[in-house]
Amino acid sequence: MSVSAGTPIELVEGVYATLVERANAGRARFGRPLTLTEKILLNHLDDASADIERGGTYNDFRPDRVAMQDATAQMALLQFMTAGLPTTAVPSTVHCDHLILAKVGAKIDLGVAIDTNKEVYDFLRTVSAKYDIGFWGPDSGIIHQVVLEHYAFPGGMMIGTDSHTPNAGGLGMVAIGVGGADAVDVMTGFPFNVRWPKVIGVKLTGELSGWSSPKDVILEVARVLTVEGGTGAIIEYFGPGADSISATGKATICNMGAEIGATCSLFPYDHNMSMYLKATGRESIADAADEVADELRPDDGASYDQVIEIDLNELKPLINGPHSPDRAHRIGKNVGEEALANGWPLEISAALIGSCTNS
């Protein structure tokens, strides 16, 4: 399937065409309601008869697409070229963002990157053109934001050679950051093999208020789970509070799931996702998702390995750190004594506000 600046509706319709049947088969097989994570994984499972055990079995999956950033795409494309294939088995893209160093200012830094990395960019561009791979050159934006705005869709599955690929979970997608070898496997038609993840549910109630923001949700989850608590698991947010958060807010939360070791994170399909798809020129995908909306959300009574409950009405702004993203401090509380006891610096000489996490 030819790669364009967007996910073809034919691809989405193909995913949805099997979703209901395979979700029903999964409910019959397990004898219980399913999480959204399980529905998506079952729909992308390579062998429907394979043994499945959360956190136990290794299973093969067929992701819908692949995204690569420029630093890791070089070796991945060199390996793909040796396969002797005319094009990739699934839609794939290259995004030139990681080799741009923020040092002086946007215009100067971009010019330096283009000059310094000319040979790399020329290689990535020409190889992409030869094998019908989507190419986003320098100055196109951050990879995971481009993916959210153009390629992600509810109920889909993708892998990307960037740790923030899970940003696409803001649109209800199982999106996993991988190494270049995994990407090449999928690009050449082999399945993606990974241990069937556990599923940690985060039930959200209420609505964010005051100075609280979506980022505070994941900072609170990090406080509860610690930096290791999400290892081997997909974090699935649900509940009425989840529906109150914008699609970009959801993406911010999913983007930071890597900080707790999670395989990825995702939210169920809702009105905010539909509005975001329409606002980014993907109304046909929103319409298709509406047709299978019940299967793009967890079943009532779905079973999770662990459930964390957060009342957004009570959630206050947090600052996490230093040294570890799970060390949470509620703004407004006196943390000076702890800072002094640990020898943390109290005078701020410089501050960086990143756009990477703030989707």
CATH class: Alpha Beta
Strand order of the largest sheet: 4-3-2-5-6
| Backbone shape | globular
Based on secondary structure, the structural category is alpha/beta
The CATH architecture name reads 2-Layer Sandwich
On the 0 to 100 scale, the average pLDDT is 93
How many DSSP E strands? 13
Structure write-up:
It is built from 13 helices and 13 strands. The protein has 359 residues and is an alpha/beta fold. Helix 3 packs across helix 5 (118-130) and helix 11 packs antiparallel against helix 12 (283-291).
List descriptors.
359 residues, Aconitase, domain 3, five-stranded parallel sheet, 13 helices
Provide a short characterization of the protein structure.
This protein has 359 residues and is of the alpha/beta class. 37% of the residues lie in helices and 16% in strands.
Topology:
Blueprint (H helix, E strand, L loop, with lengths): L8 H22 L5 H8 L14 E4 L3 E5 H12 L10 E4 L10 H11 L1 H13 L3 E3 L6 H8 L6 E4 L13 E4 L2 H8 L4 E4 L2 E8 L8 H12 L7 E6 L1 H4 L3 H9 L8 E3 L4 H9 L3 H9 L14 E6 L6 E3 L7 E3 L5 H7 L17
Parallel strand pairs: 2-3, 2-5, 3-4, 5-6, 8-9, 8-11, 9-10
Antiparallel strand pairs: 1-7, 12-13
Helix pairs in contact: 1-2, 1-12, 3-5, 3-7, 8-10, 11-12
